[in-house]
């Protein structure tokens, strides 16, 4: 009992609130069982030793008493001598080796049980020190790994040396348990998942249930009555749903275009209804084609006039043969002559007279422009200054240079006085060629550390950093935004469904339009977003967000779980105006006016963050019906223009809410609401009633009136729809 009290006291000193935990009580009971096992081992050894001595003495005594007279005849008339007495004693003596083996076997069984108990305790303690769900890793506890292999001492002094070590191990276990508990509480409070926009309270609750189930399996203490778990049925249903979805995706991917030796070219332009009909028709016939949008490739308009006689679109070519527009294509199909044309393009390779697909960089203005003289100087400066890893304010910075080194170079290369060189360096820094490692100043002569923009460890991980320094002057952000809008419109029309709910990622990845988009994003590293008007900023950032999400899915793949979604939304970044922006930073930091993401405790931008200057003055609630992150439950994909941004956002809200985002069942008085309205409810109103009143403005008049009446009478039941994170492929 004294040992047990010592162990409990150690646990109390480690963490008193955790002592009442049922888990720790179980560990104390296991230690008590170990004490009992060890006492039984000692008692068993003493009993065997006493039995051996008694057996040995009684055997010798009985033999001596029976044959105590030398020379006496036995029952057969033989005389017994002293030598025969000795032989007789040796023969009748009990087999001590057998007793010893039995004793050893008994001790081995108990020792084995004792060691296994210690090993189980040790493994549980070690498991608690493993990394937790949010990726943080607790410091490793000092666990005595030789405890389970330690031999059992047979004297009380040896036992006394073992138990203090166990008390230390149990104390470490209690401390680790408290650390894990605190970490779990903080993680639950913060609710961080996928940069704060994709894990709901229900998902978090399911994770806790899964973790509890895993702990029950590890401890092997699950009762028989818990074999029936309703969550298992839910899991089975989810698995069946997932399998059905996968089967649909496989069957969809199985419908591939017909293999052909020839080539089909389709000339289109933006906003052409007949071009949509031709696309749909070619898809139904499983005919692969290359689209040439004459708005994206203006030089192809002259080519079309030359080979077709005019620039009307759509125009379809099977190799060098002109099929015509939508009416000609439809008439050929009705007459049955289209099959002959299809056989021709399948069997015959295109001749040199056939139109060519768009070439890489064709009609692309990204690389055009005047030479930036400052960029030429910085390029030479980067080649002359030795970049090193240096320490500044107890921190290590890689690939940086001293301010004095930049001043020395500019003084020699540009023939400037030292003060003039400092002013010139500030001009270079203002143009985002380099910056202070801690953003403490624009530029100062001396021992301050600076690094070039592409050498910044955070900027270098962005997905739109060009190879080498761009020597072309940065174009105005309004011009870049216009080209981005134009290109994204062409991509959405060519590679997305008419309703914008499904995207052909495979075709986008291999298209010249997407390659041009990547070249446009490389121009964003030194633009100025601060002075953009509200309408321009809204349209630009929404279009950029939607294309950036497509880019992220093509590069990193569609996220399959909360941790991968967190990575995609928080770590896939572009550098824009010298600062890094993730999908979450664009949505929550700029478009929502630096509001906390759902289930997060902190805002995206700090008080001293330069990106805070770019944030909108107030949150825009309708952006949630325009931002598409590649999920099935998200809004439709469309392009937005600055001139009609408010009208287009209202149309997007109507389209989303009227077609599944908010369904009102008047018979049961239940409203089925998208989780987007719950996650970002603070943008729509102070409470659930205000959120639904805001959403009612975008419903049909009859449904809106009925919804408002139910809200006024407090008769409405709200059910939030499950969010489908599957890919909108």
Describe what this molecule looks like in 3D.
This protein is an alpha+beta fold and 729 residues long. It is built from 25 helices and 13 strands. Helix 14 packs across helix 15 and helix 16 runs antiparallel to helix 18. The longest helix is centred in the N-terminal third of the chain and has 45 residues. The protein is globular and about 105 Å long. About 23% of the residues have low confidence.
Distance linking N and C termini: 67 Å
Category from helices, strands and their pairing: alpha+beta
Q: Helical stretch count?
A: 25
Biggest sheet record: 4 strands, mixed
Question: Using only CA atoms, what is the Rg?
Answer: 40 Å
Approximate helicity band: 40-55%
Q: State the low-pLDDT regions, or none.
A: 14-21, 59-163, 191-202, 213-254
Sequence of strands across the biggest β-sheet = 2-1-3-4
Number of strands: 13
Q: Based on Cα principal axes, name the global outline.
A: globular
The whole-number mean of residue pLDDT values reads 77
Strand content: 5-15%
Protein name: DEP domain-containing protein
Pfam families: DEP, DUF547, Glutaredoxin
Organism: Anisodus acutangulus
InterPro entries: DEP_dom, DUF547, Glutaredoxin, Thioredoxin-like_sf, WH-like_DNA-bd_sf, WH_DNA-bd_sf
Which helices and strands, and how do they pair?
Blueprint: H1 2-14, H2 16-19, H3 22-66, H4 82-92, H5 96-127, H6 156-190, H7 201-219, H8 230-254, E1 264-268, H9 273-284, E2 290-293, H10 299-308, E3 315-318, E4 321-324, H11 326-335, H12 338-347, H13 373-384, E5 388-392, E6 395-402, H14 403-413, H15 418-430, E7 434-436, E8 449-452, H16 477-495, H17 505-509, H18 512-521, H19 534-556, H20 562-571, E9 573-576, E10 579-582, H21 583-591, H22 645-661, E11 662-665, E12 670-673, H23 675-679, H24 688-696, H25 701-712, E13 717-720
Parallel strand pairs: 1-2, 12-13
Antiparallel strand pairs: 1-3, 3-4, 5-6, 6-8, 7-8, 9-10, 11-12
Helix pairs in contact: 1-6, 3-4, 3-5, 14-15, 16-18, 16-19, 19-21, 24-25
Organism: Anisodus acutangulus
Region (Disordered): 46-99
Domain DEP: 381-454
